[in-house]
Inverse folding.
């Protein structure tokens, strides 16, 4: 197989940056939603669960089109951002948004699994001793769910690395700007003379994904052992 080209390395670097940005930006929101769904009972909880998990069932192209409508020039959010000089569509920001939306359900589900494994008696004890709900969250829940948080983040990172459908709709396939690994492979696959280049980039993608999923499994097993202890 031929060596990777500078454009391929650019796509790899951009994929890692987009996946990292999507994971970091989603983390506080994902943790808040996971806590909300795990510890609180309220009207509309079922609807919130459906909305959170909706990107898992929708075709990624549908997610991308909805984001395009929302962030487009005439979209309700896109028009407001344009007034403030912020452009999302067909930029790297759009890739981050698409990856964040598609990967968000996986982050929340992983976090909920970790939070549900925490002994509720520890939470009740902290509350009984006078800790506020926020204090309990910081001193008890967060430390005990840290490995689950890392597992969820790594899972979302891996999912973001492979995002294609929503990204190509809302961000396009612009080399050096929005072209991530899946988009670069797609471009190679469309050319009958670039099969070997596509295979080289596929190998690089598999290598990165295996490394990330290895970390995810380690964190997930560590979280399971802690919750079982």
């Amino acid at each position: 197989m031929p060596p990777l080209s500078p454009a391929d390395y650019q796509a790899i670097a951009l994929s890692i940056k987009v996946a990292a940005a999507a994971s970091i930006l989603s983390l506080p929101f994902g943790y808040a939603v996971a806590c909300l769904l795990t510890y609180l009972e309220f009207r509309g909880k079922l609807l919130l669960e459906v909305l959170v998990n909706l990107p898992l069932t929708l075709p990624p192209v549908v997610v991308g089109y909805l984001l395009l409508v929302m962030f487009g020039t005439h979209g309700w959010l896109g028009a407001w951002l344009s007034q403030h000089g912020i452009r999302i569509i067909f930029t790297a920001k759009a890739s981050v948004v698409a990856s964040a939306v598609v990967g968000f359900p996986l982050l929340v589900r992983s976090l909920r699994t970790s939070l549900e494994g925490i002994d509720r008696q520890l939470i009740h004890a902290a509350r009984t001793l006078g800790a506020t709900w926020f204090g309990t969250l910081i001193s008890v829940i967060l430390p005990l769910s840290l490995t689950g948080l890392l597992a969820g983040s790594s899972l979302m990172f891996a999912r973001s690395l492979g995002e294609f459908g929503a990204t190509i709709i809302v961000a396009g396939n612009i080399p050096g700007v929005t072209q991530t690994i899946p988009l670069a492979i797609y471009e190679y696959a469309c050319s009958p003379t670039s099969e070997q280049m596509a295979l080289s980039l596929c190998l690089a993608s598999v290598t990165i994904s295996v490394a990330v999923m290895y970390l995810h499994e380690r964190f997930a097993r560590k979280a399971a052992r802690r919750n079982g202890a």
Notes: The mean pLDDT is 88. The first helix runs from residue 6 to 39.
